[in-house]
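Operator note (shift B, R.M.): manual run for CRISPR-associated endoribonuclease requested after the automated queue skipped it. Running by hand, logging everything below so the morning shift can see what happened. Input copied straight from the record, untouched. If output looks odd, do not overwrite the archive copy; leave it for review.
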Amino acid sequence: MRLKLKLQVDSQFNILPFNYFYPVSAWLYKQINRGDSDFAHWLHQKGYMVKGKHFKHFTFSKIGLRRFRRLNGGLLILDRQVDLHISFLTQKSFESFLSGLFLHQQMDIVDARHQCRFFITQVESLSAPEFKARMHFRSKSPICLSKPVEINGKSGKEFLHPSHPEYGQRLVQNLFFKYLSFKELEKDAAMEDSLMKNFEFKWYEPCKSRLATIKSGSKEETRIRGYLYSFDLTAPPELLRIGYYSGFGEKNSLGFGYVEVMNDK
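Run finished. Output pasted below as returned.
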């Protein structure tokens, strides 16, 4: 399910810090915790697991700003109202619970220099697209994919550009593991074999790099790079549905990998 939240901007606190992905993610966990603390704890600490991988199966878009002015460390919002899209891969029976969590709530995004406050005035459920074997998507938040590398004798990560020769394969492998975790399967040999033989991935310029700082200013500060671009993907419709709702690539619960379906090129 997908929800569109209408956010009223507090005119007294209207400077949005650049690195707002983590605070929005933390706010979403807080709202889920209000409704079901056991589920929120399980989702945050463990989530859906398969083959040692953990998935949260939710993501969100960038905050939709139309008018703003760039300041040192943040954005002065000139709009009175903005929006935020959130997306969950969930069972049908859980959708009404999620839909009722956000209306009339307050969201504060704060760092050492700036503070922004929003009030959720409206929650709209968004209709689902038709999922086909080939679809054209545009990322509305950066898509992150990485591979392990050794840097100066230590384990590290290389964040991959869509032009990387392993990118398409790693993108669909990530979808396949999400599929297994959500379906609570250890394996699906037929699906995996068909996917790896028949998938097609094609990305399009422009492709914009975005570097996000998570837990900025703390001892746990990390930086994550993702890319904004559009792409065609041919794969089983069920996997494309999972990518659409759960997010494409990695770090989805931090706001990476939110896409919209576009008209075929």
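Quick read of the result: Residues 2-126 form a domain with the Alpha-Beta Plaits fold (CATH 3.30.70.1890). The CA atoms of residues 61 and 150 lie 32 Å apart.
Leaving this for review. - R.M.
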